[in-house]
Amino acid sequence: MSQFFQIHPDNPQLRLIKQAVQIIDNGGIVALPTDSCYALVCHLDDKDAVTRLRKIRGVDEKHHLTLLCRDLSEISLYAKVDNRQYRMLKAATPGPYTFILEATKEVPRRLSHPSRKTIGLRVPENSITHALLEELKQPLLGTTLILPDEEEPLTDPEQVRERLAKLVDLVIDGGACSLVPTTVIDMTGDAPELVRQGRGDVALFGL
What we know:
It holds the Pfam family Sua5_yciO_yrdC. This is Threonylcarbamoyl-AMP synthase. By secondary structure, the protein is an alpha/beta fold. It has one domain: DHBP synthase, CATH 3.90.870.10. The chain is built from 6 helices and 10 strands. Strand 9 and strand 10 form a beta hairpin. The radius of gyration is 16 Å and the shape is globular.
């Protein structure tokens, strides 16, 4: 059975954040709130945890998983970002956007897209997620919490707890989240390309 932490959405309790990070460090899968939907996250470098996460989500290695980063400087460690891209990212982060960028060698090969060598990255605007990232001192690997054969994400923490009690190691109750996922922008071409319209305003990218 998974653990269940109620964490304050604006002032996360450090004691619980530290316990959550310990669970992640030990190979756990965590369901947590973001500035869009709830997400499933795990340790970036834990191959077994990544496999479990994909199985829960019902996706294969062709599906982009996302690195949740603390800030733009962390993004630049894992993705190749030129000056033009950097200006756009700076205007849109933190916020409900996921960016597809060319992966650097810092990204484990199994995590980048097998054919394109790209990776999804975001800087979420959520106090709980940010506190976890600060304590962990590296990105989390995540994906929107949509279960196999379902179209809508799970957004209520009690429902997440009920549905995933035997599948994840921790559910963080930080209140209900939006039903709308992130806006996904592909930044690998000459101009930004909209992949999925979500919460984020595309006008920042001239779309």
